[in-house]
Amino acid sequence: MKMKTYRIRKPKVVVIGGGTGLPVILKSLRNESVEITAIVTVADDGGSSGEIRESIAMAPPGDLRNVLVAMSDMPKLYSDIFQYRFNKEDKFLANHALGNLIIAAIAEMRGSTYDAVQLLTKMMHVDGHVYPSSEKPLVLHAVFKDGTEAVGESKIACDRKTIDHVFVRNQEGGHEPKAARKVVTAIMEADMLVLGPGSLFTSILPNLMISEIGEAIRKTEAETVYICNIMTQKGETEHFTDANHVEVLHQHLQDNFINTVLVNTEKVPEGYMDFEVYDEYLVQVKHDFKGLRAQNCRVVSTDFLKLRDGGVFHDGDKVVEELLTILYGAKSVH
């Protein structure tokens, strides 16, 4: 196997997604000698982020906040303050994360969420780049197999219908969205592109459905790696195998663009999951290695499982170890 050498510069790794999965990978990747760019979804319309984007015409701050903290070397006390969420009894401030309000304030001062995030990367000593996928808030649309449609990321899973496809539009005017500054360049210059882990239809695909981003992903020569979810999700990926996740990504971009899939093979212990807290998860994703290989994917299957607080997560260190092995090895599938 031909090993790649990066003597002159650090390899460039671009991670795309949103939700709780993205920060897990970024936190572990931050300790490695790579240049990181995080491209973060701006289609979130629930919770604190949703309320803020309704009050101020700005991209939702929640996923951006979590990514900034994951990539920052701030002392724990500072990040705890940034992540502090007001009590639900606090009426006006109920459930708002302080970091969301700070991002909103700087976005208003600077006239843009994008500029606010760039300023915060400096303030928070972020080693790498953080870009919203678009500079305007987006609305996610899901078209179901029965022809009906749901509008808004938080509404999509409610009826538990089978999703045919999703697309995004600008919140204002309903126009086709544009990619944020530097996003397309980062994808084209990347040595490795990492998708996920995260909700397939509501965290990963909203980024890919911005046509400039989708096109860049199809064209880039970067090794493209998909980190498959460990659990199926209610109203999104019910009864999905790992191959089904990849099929959906390929169908949306009409191209078999994923080179390598990381699959967890470790079993979640019976009765471990706290389904009251993690109510969107159903069962473990089943494996279909034949189906993955039929889509020209190399499969890396091993124990990526981390059990914490009654929930099921990817072990960031184990995932990053595999990513680096792929990064410094040969690109075996193209």
TrEMBL record:
Record keywords, A-Z: Cytoplasm
HAMAP family in UniProt: Gluconeogen_factor
Family matches, as Pfam families: CofD (PF01933)
Family: Belongs to the gluconeogenesis factor family.
Chief site of localization: cytoplasm
The keyword Ligase appears for this protein: no
Superkingdom classification of source: Bacteria
Function: Required for morphogenesis under gluconeogenic growth conditions.
UniProt xrefs under InterPro entries: CofD, CofD-like_dom_sf, Gluconeogen_factor
Protein name: Putative gluconeogenesis factor
Localization, UniProt: Cytoplasm
Gene3D superfamilies associated with the record: CofD-like domains
Species of the source: Enterococcus diestrammenae
